[in-house]
Design a protein that fits this description.
Oligomer: heterodimer
Number of helices of chain A: 2
Order of helices and strands of chain A: EHEEEHE
Radius of gyration of chain B: 32 Å
Distance between the termini of chain A: 11 Å
Helix content of chain A: 10-25%
CATH topology of chain A: SH3 type barrels
Largest interface: A-B, 37 and 45 residues
Structural class of chain A: alpha+beta
Structural class of chain B: alpha/beta
Number of strands of chain A: 5
Shape of chain A: globular
Strand content of chain B: 5-15%
Shape of chain B: elongated
CATH superfamily of chain A: Ferrous iron transport protein A (FeoA)
Helix content of chain B: 55-70%
Largest sheet of chain A: 5 strands, antiparallel
Strand order of the largest sheet of chain B: 2-3-1-4-5-7
Number of helices of chain B: 34
CATH architecture of chain A: Roll
Radius of gyration of chain A: 11 Å
CATH class of chain A: Mainly Beta
Number of domains of chain A: 1
Chain lengths: ~70, ~725
C-alpha cells in the first residue's frame, strides 16, 4: 500500500503473539485503515486505525490483508 | 478499613497523570518488562477513608503474553481490589474499550474514567457518558486528568461502587455458535471439577483456554493433568474446526466478537462525530515535519544532540560543586585525622565511595528529565519509528538509540544513565541486548585514558584517532549485540507493533515526579551496594600493607634526606611559601621520589597488585605488564582511575587524570610500551568489564546473573581483541 491509501482489513493471517498484538490494537477484519507514512528507510510503516496511529514493521504488516479503496 | 483501588488502562491513556493527580505520587516504578515489573502504589484520604491506589502497568489487553499484562491480571485476581478505575481515552474510545471489555469479562467491579474529554471535543467527538454507562452497566465519569477536572466525582463514584461490595459479576459476550457451544462444554467440566473456580469464574477460565492463554493452561495442568488434557482435547477439536471452516484461530474469533460488542454498543448513540475521520489533527501536522523522510532524521539528530548537550553540559556544574564539596571534605579529614589505615579508609574508601554515588545524581536527574520530556511529549516513539530499520539489523529495537547515545555514542557520555535509559524499551530481549552492549561505548571516564594513550603514541593525529575509536565502539557494540541476539538472547524479534501517541505538552509536575522517582531509585537501589564495593576495592588496593621493616626503611630514608639538608631549607619547606629556593625544591623532590617508590611498592604488594602480577603471564599475550594490569583492576572502580593507578605503579605519585604529561613521557620511554601495546590497551580499556557502578546498575535493572555475565563476557571479549591486536601488530612489526 502506498502513502495516504485507504483500505478495509479483510484478514489477519498470523497467529501467536503478533496476531494478538495486532488484534488488541484494533486490527480486525472490517476495520478501516489508512497508511500515514513510512519511516525514512521505508520501514516501519505508520498506520491510522480507529483513532490512533500504530507503527508496524513491513514484514509484520505483510500479514494484514487489505481491500484497497 | 483501608480501601484497595486499582488503576487500569491503555498506555498513553493518561493513567500516570491521573495517578499523580490522585495521590501526588510518592512512588513511581517504570513500566518496564523483562525481569521486574513492579506496580506503583500511592495513598489517598477521601471522605474520611484511607485509599490505597495501585497503578497497574499500562496494557492494551489482558492476555498472558507480556509480563505487564500478567502482573495486571494477577493483581486483580489475587488482590481483589474493591474497585478498579478503568481509565479510557475518550478520543480513542473504541480501542480503549477493548481492555474495558476484558475487565468486565473478568468480572472486576469497575468505574470507567472517561479521560481527555477536551481532546475528544477538539477532534469533534462527542461522547454521551450516560448512554455509555447504561450499556456497559458500570458508572462512567468524564474527567480531564491533566487539569484534575472530574476527580471528585470519580472518587465518590468509586467509593460508592466499593461500598456495595458486590460479587464479581462477569459480563457474558456471545462468541458465535461454534465457540459458545465449546465454551458450554468447557464450563461444564470446569464446574464439575471445580477447577480454579474460587479464583476465576468458570466461563473466564474457559475463554482463556480457548484463547490459548499459557498461564491459565499451565495452572490447570498443575492442578489436574487429566482435566487439562480433557479441556485441551475439546479446544483442539474446535480449533481444527474453525481453522478448516473459517481459516482462523478461536482467539481471533473472540477478538472479533469483542470488537463487535464494542461497535454495537457505540452505535447506540454513545458517540457522535462532527468531522470527517480523515481530518488531520495538529499531531499529524507535526508528524508531517518531524517524521518527514528527509527533514525528520536531521531534526532527530539535532534533538538527540540537544538532549545530550543538556544532560552532560548542564549537569557539569552541579557535578563540579559536588566534587568540590567532597574534595573539601577529603582534605578536611586529611588534616583532622592522624596518618594511618583509618584515615585512608575514610578518605579513599568512604568519602570517595559516597562521592562516587552522589556524583552521578545530577547526571541521572538531567538525563531522566530530558528523556521524560521526549517520552511524555510522544517524540521518543517517533525516534524508535525512524531508527528501527537500522537497529533491527543487529537484533535491537528502534528505542535502543537513546541508551547508546547517552552511554557515549557521542563520546563522553556515561553508561550508568545509559543502562537506566533502557527502561524505555518494552521488548525484553532487545532490552537485554541493549543493556549489555551500551557499556562498550566511550564514556566520559574512558576519555582521559584514551586521550593519554593516543596523545602519547599517536600525538600527530589525535582528532582522527579519537574519531576512529568512537566509530569503532559503535561497530563493536552493534556486532556484539548481534552476537548476543544470535546466542544467549536468541529468539525472534518481539513484534514492533507500537502506538505513536499524539503529541502532548508534558506537565512540569509529571516531569518532576518522573525525574525525582528515578533518581531516588538509583540512590536507594544502587547507592548502598556501590559504597560497599568502593570500600572493598579500596581494601584490595591497600592491603596487605608493606611489611613493617620496609616502611620503616622508607621513613628512615626520608629522615636521612631531611637531616642531610640544611636547617633553614627544612624550615622553608615546612612553611610552603612560594617561590621555594633551589635547595628546598631539591629536597622536596628527593622526599617525593622516596614516597612515590614506597607507594609503588605498596601497590604492588596489595591484593590488587598481587593479582596484577600473577596474571602477567596471561596478559603478556596482549602486551600488558603488571603495572598495566593493576591500573586495569583499578579501572573497575572507575575508568579514570586507570590513569592515576598507572601513575602510582610507575612511581610518579599523584597523577591528575586531566593533565598527565609526565606520565605520557614516562610511557614513551618505557620499553614495555609501543604503538601496538597502546592500541591493544585502548581496545581492552574500551571493551572490558564495565565499571562496578554500571555493573551494579545492570544488576538492578536485570539481575546479578546478567551483571556477572556482563563482566565476564566483556572482559574475555576485550582480552581476545587485545591479544589479536597485539599479536598481529607485533607480527607485522608495527610497533
Amino acid at each position: 500500500m502506498r502513502k495516504d491509501q485507504h483500505g478495509i482489513i479483510v484478514a489477519i493471517n498470523v497467529a501467536g503473539e503478533l496476531g494478538r498484538r495486532l488484534r488488541e490494537m484494533g486490527f480486525i477484519p472490517g476495520t478501516h485503515i489508512k497508511v500515514c507514512g513510512r519511516a525514512p528507510l521505508h520501514d516501519p510503516v505508520a498506520i491510522r486505525i480507529l483513532d490512533s496511529t500504530i507503527t508496524l514493521r513491513n514484514n509484520e504488516a505483510d500479514h494484514i490483508l487489505v481491500d484497497i479503496e | 478499613m483501608q480501601l484497595k483501588m486499582a488503576l487500569a488502562g491503555n498506555p498513553n491513556a493518561g493513567k500516570t497523570t491521573l495517578f499523580n493527580q490522585l495521590t501526588g505520587a510518592r512512588q513511581h516504578v517504570g513500566n518496564y518488562p523483562g525481569i521486574t515489573v513492579d506496580h506503583k502504589e500511592g495513598h489517598l484520604h477521601y471522605q474520611g477513608r484511607t485509599i490505597v491506589i495501585t497503578d497497574l502497568p499500562g496494557t492494551y489487553s489482558m492476555t498472558a503474553y507480556s509480563l505487564e499484562e500478567l502482573v495486571a491480571r494477577d493483581y486483580l485476581v489475587y488482590n481483589r481490589p474493591q474497585v478498579v478505575i478503568n481509565i479510557v481515552d475518550a478520543s480513542n474510545l473504541e480501542r480503549n474499550l477493548y481492555l474495558t471489555c476484558q475487565l468486565l469479562e473478568l468480572g472486576a467491579p469497575i468505574v470507567v474514567a472517561l479521560n481527555m474529554m477536551d481532546v475528544a471535543k477538539t477532534r469533534g467527538i462527542e461522547i454521551n457518558a450516560a448512554v455509555l454507562a447504561k450499556h456497559l452497566q458500570v458508572p462512567v465519569v468524564p474527567i480531564i486528568a491533566r487539569s484534575g477536572f472530574g476527580k471528585d466525582a470519580l472518587l465518590s463514584t468509586a467509593l460508592q461502587v466499593a461500598s456495595t461490595n458486590q460479587q464479581w459479576n462477569p459480563l457474558n459476550i456471545s462468541y458465535g455458535d461454534d465457540l459458545d457451544s465449546t465454551l458450554a462444554e468447557l464450563i461444564e467440566i470446569i464446574i464439575a471439577e471445580s477447577l480454579m473456580t474460587d479464583t476465576y469464574h468458570a466461563r473466564y477460565t474457559a475463554i482463556k483456554y480457548l484463547e490459548n492463554d499459557e498461564q491459565i493452561q499451565a495452572k490447570c495442568r498443575e492442578i489436574s493433568l487429566k482435566t487439562a488434557q480433557l479441556l485441551d482435547k475439546i479446544v483442539n477439536k474446535t480449533t481444527e474446526h474453525t481453522r478448516q471452516t473459517l481459516d482462523v484461530y478461536p482467539e481471533a474469533i473472540i477478538a472479533d466478537h469483542r470488537y463487535g460488542y464494542i461497535k454495537s454498543l457505540l452505535r447506540q448513540g454513545v458517540i457522535t462525530r462532527k468531522f470527517d475521520t480523515d481530518r488531520l489533527y495538529t499531531s499529524d501536522k507535526i508528524d508531517k515535519i518531524l517524521t518527514n523522510r528527509l527533514v525528520g532524521p536531521v531534526l532527530m539528530l539535532a534533538i538527540l544532540f540537544a538532549l545530550y548537550q543538556f544532560t552532560f553540559s548542564w549537569s557539569e556544574m552541579p557535578i563540579s560543586w559536588l566534587k568540590y564539596a567532597f574534595s573539601w571534605l577529603s582534605s578536611l579529614t586529611e588534616e583532622m585525622l592522624p596518618d594511618g589505615i583509618l584515615k585512608s579508609l575514610i578518605v579513599s574508601g568512604i568519602i570517595n565511595g559516597v562521592g562516587g554515588v552522589l556524583g552521578f545524581i545530577p547526571l541521572i536527574m538531567f538525563m531522566f528529565f530530558g528523556i521524560a520530556i521526549l517520552e511524555d511529549s510522544g517524540y521518543l516513539a517517533r525516534v524508535a519509528f525512524m531508527m528501527d530499520r537500522i537497529f533491527r539489523i543487529f537484533g535491537l529495537h528502534g528505542s535502543s538509540v537513546m541508551p547508546f547515545i547517552v552511554s557515549g555514542g557521542i563520546a563522553g557520555g556515561c553508561a550508568v544513565p545509559g543502562v537506566m535509559a533502557t527502561r524505555t524499551l518494552r521488548s525484553p530481549k532487545e532490552r537485554m541486548a541493549t543493556l549489555l552492549t551500551v557499556p562498550f561505548m566511550n564514556c566520559g571516564a574512558k576519555l582521559p585514558v584514551l586521550a593519554l594513550l593516543i596523545g602519547t603514541f599517536f600525538g600527530e593525529n589525535k582528532a582522527k584517532y579519537m574519531f576512529f575509536f568512537t566509530m569503532l565502539t559503535w561497530i563493536v557494540a552493534m556486532l556484539a549485540a548481534k552476537l548476543l541476539r544470535s546466542t544467549v538472547l536468541r529468539g525472534a524479534p518481539t513484534p514492533f507493533v507500537m502506538e505513536l501517541p499524539p503529541y502532548r505538552f508534558p506537565t512540569i509536575r509529571g516531569l518532576c515526579i518522573h525525574t525525582w522517582e528515578r533518581t531516588y531509585q538509583y540512590v536507594k537501589k544502587a547507592g548502598t551496594v556501590i559504597l560497599g564495593i568502593s570500600i572493598l576495592l579500596w581494601a584490595m588496593m591497600t592491603f596487605p600493607s608493606l611489611p613493617e621493616e620496609v616502611s620503616t626503611s622508607f621513613t628512615q630514608q626520608r629522615q636521612a634526606a631531611m637531616t642531610a639538608a640544611a636547617a633553614d631549607t627544612l624550615a622553608e619547606l615546612k612553611t610552603k611559601i612560594e617561590p621555594l629556593s633551589e635547595q628546598a625544591k631539591a629536597l622536596d623532590h628527593t622526599i617525593s621520589l622516596i614516597s612515590n617508590t614506597e607507594a609503588e611498592l605498596a601497590l604492588r604488594n596489595s591484593i590488587a597488585g598481587k593479582i596484577g602480577t600473577s596474571v602477567e603471564s596471561v596478559s603478556r599475550l596482549a602486551g600488558f605488564d603488571w603495572r598495566t594490569n593493576i591500573a586495569l583492576i583499578g579501572g573497575f572502580a572507575a575508568k579514570e582511575v586507570i590513569v592515576s593507578t598507572l601513575g602510582t605503579a610507575y612511581s610518579m605519585g599523584q597523577v591528575d587524570s586531566k593533565d598527565a604529561q609526565s606520565l605520557s613521557d614516562r610511557l614513551k620511554e618505557d620499553s614495555n610500551w609501543n604503538r601496538v601495546v597502546a592500541v591493544a590497551a585502548l581496545v581492552f580499556i574500551m571493551f572490558y568489564s564495565p565499571c562496578f557502578i554500571t555493573v551494579v546498575c545492570i544488576a538492578k535493572e536485570a539481575s546479578w546473573k546478567w551483571a556477572a555475565f556482563s563482566m565476564g563476557f566483556n572482559t574475555i571479549f576485550a582480552y581476545l581483541m587485545a591479544v589479536a591486536v597485539f599479536q598481529l601488530g607485533t607480527f607485522f612489526n608495527l610497533g
